Amino acid sequence: MTLKIGLPSKGRLMDKTFEWFTARGVPMRLAGSGREYRAESDLAGIAPVLLSAGEIPRELAAGRIHLGVTGQDVVRDKVPNWEARVCEIAPLGFGEADLVIAVPMFWADVDTVHDLDAAAAAFRQTHGHRLRIATKYHRLVREFLRAEGVADYRLVDSQGATEGTVRNLTAEAIADITSTGDTLRANHLKPLADGVVLRSQATLFKSRTAGWADAERQSLAALLARLELDE
Amino acid sequence: MTASAAVLGEAARLGAAFEAAGAARVETDILQPADILLDLYGEDIRGRAFVTQDPLRGEMMLRPDFTVPVARHHLAGLGGPCAYTYSGTVFRQPPDGVERPAEYIQVGYELIGAPDAVSADADLFARFHVMLAPAALDVATGDISLLTAAIGGLGVTEARRAALLRHLWRPRRFRALLDRFSKQLPPAAPSPSDAPEIGLRSREEVAARLTRLEEERAAPPLSKSEAEMMDALLSLRETSANALSQLRDLAVDMPAIQPAVTRMAARLDALAARNIDAEALPFEASYGRTSMEYYDGFVFGFIAPGRPDLPAVASGGRYDALTRALGGEAPAVGGVIRPGLLVELGLAP
Question: What's the 3-state SS for B141-198?
Fold first, then answer.
């Protein structure tokens, strides 16, 4: 059996991941014409598998791949009790993104999570429904707001263009990934000062549930030695 | 997890005992409308319940408790005092990393519409106490109305009082609010922004809250002695006899809690009249402050000794505010027993 490594299948995240492995003596590249979703590596016993970055957490948790590169945010959101099923081997130093709660810039009265809670209470009285927060990170945001003791909100699902939901009147606030804050500003939104739900970056994860026979363990040891990492 | 024959047998025995005490058996749907539960419990319940989709009726939840459907059943009826019993499966996601079944049987007993709260509380508790006596469980009691009365009497603005009452069930935010209200805030309030107005929350709503912030800054801080009395109340943990005497002392400086203290004394008398060693019952003023958001009066739990890892074997309390939130006006008190835990602990007969 070979050691299966799940790698992001497109975009900057894929390029950066290939670069990261290649720079550490484990060349990775797209196989064939470059349109084919297949990658290859020179290191024996290793099989790179291209997957959508959002699916890598699920595959790791199910043990269908041994290692995988994806964001800490998606692992924490998609994998219940994630620490029991996967472990972090190394942060890769790119793909930095913060999951933040953001509100319209003109809400001069709302700067903190405390303000958001107070505004939500007043909003519910005025409008007769709970203040809506659009996000695709339901679990993370709900756990954060529960720990902070925020009430009178509801999460609405937004799988993309989340920054536009406030203008489109489908939400009053959002919780989304941002790296520079440019998209937030362009959409007249500002992050809450203490509303960082999670700081995330691309990370190499190991599945605790995959089959770890001697062959896979040896391949892992060889790979980590080449990458100069500890398990 | 499918209930074993032993658990079903224990559930039937408990349900029959409630029926023998005069309770009418009531059945409820497993699929409950999600919006009612979300409005009552807030978004948190999505992380604790199972949500599913009905193409016609919209979002539904697998019944996370019986209290809400039974209270709605009562409010839809003719009214008048009623005792109900029910038995069935409830569905709850165990917390992350906790290995507990996500579905289990509850057998419950609810007294809805009985005008005399003190005797209804005592009747209900005595019923559970007798039925669970052979299991020799630890008992916990509390009274949320003492806390709400104390907040009602604090020397704070109405806006601050409303915020404290709203967050009584979130101990961390409640503590943060008390600390915030005890401080003299810096005078500078944020000035309005000229960024574009987007979304449903209007510029007027923002301006209104800026005005409230201004007012709040002008409000005097919560006095040190009041904050200390609140702390003393929240941390009170004693036998009922000692708790009552400490509460009577507190009521001298906190007269707002006097009616609740008088009610507690009457309840202890009523329990003693039902052959319960009321003075020795453990009392915790903060009991029931987490995850039981709808309780607003007497609360109780029966807990397996030495098993803090397990949920309460039985629990219950008064929930007048819940029936009010459901659009009715019916005093109500109720509780549930988990026959599965009794069997698991070897405490079922």
Answer: EEEHHHHHHHHHHCCCCHHHHHHHHHCCCCHHHHHHHHHHHHCCCCCCCCCCCCCCCC
A24-38, B135-149, B181-195, B315-329 — most confident range: B135-149
Per-residue pLDDT tens over the stretch A79-127: 888 888 999 999 999 989 899 999 999 999 999 999 999 999 999 999 9
> Is B96 in Cβ contact with A80 (below 8 Å)?
yes
pLDDT in tens, A166-203: 999 999 999 999 988 899 999 999 999 999 999 999 99
Query: What is this structure's pTM?
Result: 0.84
Per domain, the residue ranges of chain B are 1-137+315-349, 138-155+224-303, 156-223
How many contacts, defined by CB atoms under 8 Å, are there between A and B?
105
Q: Which residue, among B4, B74, B1, B3, has the nearest Cα to B324 in the 3D structure?
A: B74
Q: Mark yes or no for CB contact A188/B44 under 8 Å.
A: no
Cα A47-A50-A51 angle, rounded to 5 deg = 130
Report CA B26 to chain centroid distance, whole Å. 22
Q: Quick check: helix, strand or coil at residue B332?
A: strand
Q: Which residue segments constitute the domains of chain A, with CATH numbers given? A: 3-95+202-227 (3.40.190.10), 97-200 (3.40.190.10)
> CATH number of the domain at B1-137+315-349, please?
3.30.930.10
Instruction: Output the pLDDT for position A34.
Output: 62
Asked if A154 reaches chain B (Cβ–Cβ under 8 Å), the answer is: yes
Model ipTM over 0.95: no
Tokens, residue B198: 């987007």
State the DSSP H helix or E strand holding residue B114, giving kind and residue range, or none if neither.
none
Nearest CA to B97 out of A84, A170, A47, A201 is that of: A84
CA distance B260 to B117: 12
Answer yes or no: are the C-beta atoms of A122 and B205 closer than 8 Å: yes
What is the residue whose two structure tokens read 């190394």?
A90
Q: Which two tokens stand for residue B51?
A: 């949500």
Q: Tell me, yes or no, if B213 comes closer than 8 A to chain A by beta carbon.
A: yes
In the numeric block, which tokens belong to residue A201? 């970056």
Share of chain B above pLDDT 90, in %: 74
* Of residues B176, B195, B210, nearest to A188 (C-beta): B195
The distance of A155 to chain B (nearest Cα, Å) reads 7
Q: Locate the chain A residue with the closest alpha carbon to B189.
A: A109
The nearest alpha carbon in chain B to A142 belongs to B44
